[in-house]
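Hi support team,

I submitted a single chain yesterday and got back a structure, but I'm not sure I'm reading the token output correctly. Could someone confirm the output below corresponds to the sequence I sent? I've pasted both exactly as they appear in my results page.

Thanks,
R.
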Amino acid sequence: MLEIDLETKTLYAELLSRMQALHAFRPVAGLKGSFSINKVAGRDYVYFHHHAIGGRLVQVYVGALDNTTERLMREYAEGKTDVRAAREIGWRLAIRIPAGVDMLTDKLTARVMRSLAGAGVFRLGGVVVGTHAYKAIGMMYGVSWQLDTIVTSDIASRNVSVAIPMITADIPTVMDSLNMGFLPVPDMNLQQPSTFFVVRRDRLRLDVLTPKTTKSYDSVFIPRFGCAAMPLDYLSYLIESPVQAVLINNDDPVLINVPQPARYALHKLIVSQIRNRSNSTKSNKDLHQAHQLLSLIQTIQPDDIRSAWENLIARGPKWRKPAEKGMKSMRRLFGKLRVDPREGMPPEENRFKREQTG
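Hi R., thanks for writing in. Yes, this is the structure output for that exact sequence:
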């Protein structure tokens, strides 16, 4: 049973709140203006109005009206929108995270993530997936994952995978600006643009992914991000409605997007079944990650599992069947869950439950 470090969880929640506030501070820091709240499609959104050089009135979108934007408006009125001071508070919180939850990100990876964040990749909907998302989710819950669920012998821990929606950030230019020697790696088919970049001397790799929307597996050029991305099946479910998280290293923390934890776990069940049959090590790691995460969520947010499962099976048999096969394999290898995500399914799905338990 994973143990939750309550001190880490509490500090992380405060750090995330501060990082979200800092993210909101940036568009208004140092500007004189005022806020307005506009209702769109039944929801309230916050805008900031100021006069640019020449007297032109500029409206800046800040975000949906929530605790973070309310806090921003309050602190702006109190004269506290100092970005440097906000970063200092975030840094001090980050270094207080106990060493017992060893989910820190290495310095080079954090540098890449920070540059992507600064270029607006996450503001535009980019989502970190893979090992670094899993580590960030662990920090969110205040737990240390078992080591064999984080890395395997044939995977470098500096692999960074970012999934982007089919939607302007120039990723190649961002990588170039780091002066780290990032090189786009040619596709096997030289007529296809590269979908990943590497720094060979540091074993650092950035993969750019996007949901597959056609029958073709050819790389897809996405003008808004200035690069090509590798289309993957089942990715749309993973990156839909992501949550914000913080990557922590010994430098400044970085605000990123990661998948919803329950969706991350259920997606791993599918991935375990579509991997090459010869790659049992990675498939078992997928199932172990799913089991650890679902075991944790079932104790604190069980409804998240059921909601994520219902969304998955609503996408049809292509999604449901590998997920159920993955669940069966996970239970065989690592044990049953106390909360079965299939509970509360529509009547027409009950037969699948009987098949698994009969």
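A quick pointer for reading it: The radius of gyration is 21 Å. Let us know if anything else looks off.

Best,
Support desk
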